[in-house]
What we know:
The complex is a heterodimer of chains A (112) and B (110). With 112 residues, chain A is mostly beta strands. Helices cover 0% and strands 54% of the residues of chain A. Chain A is built from no helices and eleven strands. In chain B, a hairpin with a 4-residue loop joins strand 5 and strand 6. The chains are: A mainly beta (112), B mainly beta (110).
Amino acid sequence: SAVISQKPSRDICQRGTSLTIQCQVDSQVTMMFWYRQQPGQSLTLIATANQGSEATYESGFVIDKFPISRPNLTFSTLTVSNMSPEDSSIYLCSVSWTETQYFGPGTRLLVL
Amino acid sequence: DAKTTQPPSMDCAEGRAANLPCNHSTISGNEYVYWYRQIHSQGPQYIIHGLKNNETNEMASLIITEDRKSSTLILPHATLRDTAVYYCIVRVYNTDKLIFGTGTRLQVFP
């Protein structure tokens, strides 16, 4: 299986600021995904990030709010911009590897 | 996208088999069924997946009905550490996208 790490593991941020979350995988993968999990809720897909192309966003998510970078086959970042308390969530990245998606441990974000 | 329906919660005694049902009546012929679990807000953990045949691995068994409209995840000997939210997901055709539903919260009790 693919091993995925995320940084930071958790953070507390002030409203109006931005936070960049890093996702690193130990293998080269084509497709990476970013999810959000709001408190007590299931996971919601934010976007799909393929190396060498623009990220594809799901309905309700826009690039200005959640810009994504995918500079190589093992790394991606998600930025949560101009944060408000409603952005308090767990943000998870995942990778597609041999017909299966593997998830990182998540980044717990609290916005005050 | 094919949707899944799961009971919101289930209980199971430790050592007994846990049978978690899932309905996916709108699944297409080439869409896979995946099962994941999430323990205490950790990242979801892959369990098993299948297309039409029953599947078994070291963690669980997956039984898919012949018409593919429903499936059951079986944990043969549940332990306290199996307490988690279990998600049944139909992978979107021709993509690797997984669309999560609300899942089943399984509580294993002593």
